[in-house]
Amino acid sequence: MAAAAAAARSRPNILVTGTPGTGKTTFSTALSEATNFRHINIGDLVKEKNLHDGWDDKFDCYIINEDLVCDELENMMEEGGNIVDYHGCDFFPERWFDRVVVLQTENSVLFDRLSRRGYTGSKLSNNIECEIFQVLLEEARESYPEDIVVALKNDTVDEMNANIATLSDWISSWSPMLS
């Protein structure tokens, strides 16, 4: 099914996921600029289009309505050429993605990034634990074919630039017949 969906597209779709603070949005923006792909930040989309079921005071975020998000994205994903940026991945249809990138960050770097964002208490510790236990990598491996899931270390600007170059090369060589 995923191969048939990919065959209908002329350009691949990429999901960039990982624990908050691993650099998903910065990375996705830079990759979008390097490839001329559309960057879709799910957090922004949820806010702009009201694709949520209210506010979660405990976690200080919107309660995403996954069905509304998927309905909103369906036509764009069929076109291809998208970089989807979100900290979760298990609710997106498998057929949408040709590469799933899980960004990972060393815990002290992640702690500093999240602290600068104002994360404290359980929100900070929950995200650090999520990274320690590789929750997002496991979720990606359970939700998508293992051969399309890649984990990339993203602690420094140099690592991010190398990751962008790697993915840009992969996009250049991508063929829907190979997916």
In brief:
The protein has helices at residues 2-7, 24-35, 42-49, 66-79, 107-116, 121-132, 135-143, 157-173; strands spanning 14-17, 38-41, 52-56, 61-64, 82-85, 99-104, 149-153. By secondary structure, it is of the alpha/beta class. The chain has one domain (2-7, 14-164): Rossmann fold (3-Layer(aba) Sandwich), CATH 3.40.50.
Q: Mind explaining what this structure looks like?
A:
The chain has 179 residues and is an alpha/beta fold. The chain has a single domain (2-7, 14-164), classed as Rossmann fold (3-Layer(aba) Sandwich), CATH 3.40.50.300. It contains eight helices and seven strands. The chain has helices spanning 2-7, 24-35, 42-49, 66-79, 107-116, 121-132, 135-143, 157-173; strands at residues 14-17, 38-41, 52-56, 61-64, 82-85, 99-104, 149-153. The strands form two sheets. It has a five-stranded parallel sheet with strand order 2-5-1-6-7, with helices on both faces. A hairpin with a 4-residue loop joins strand 3 (52-56) and strand 4. Helix 2 packs across helix 8 (157-173) and helix 5 packs antiparallel against helix 6 (121-132). The longest helix has 17 residues, at 157-173. It is globular and about 50 Å long.
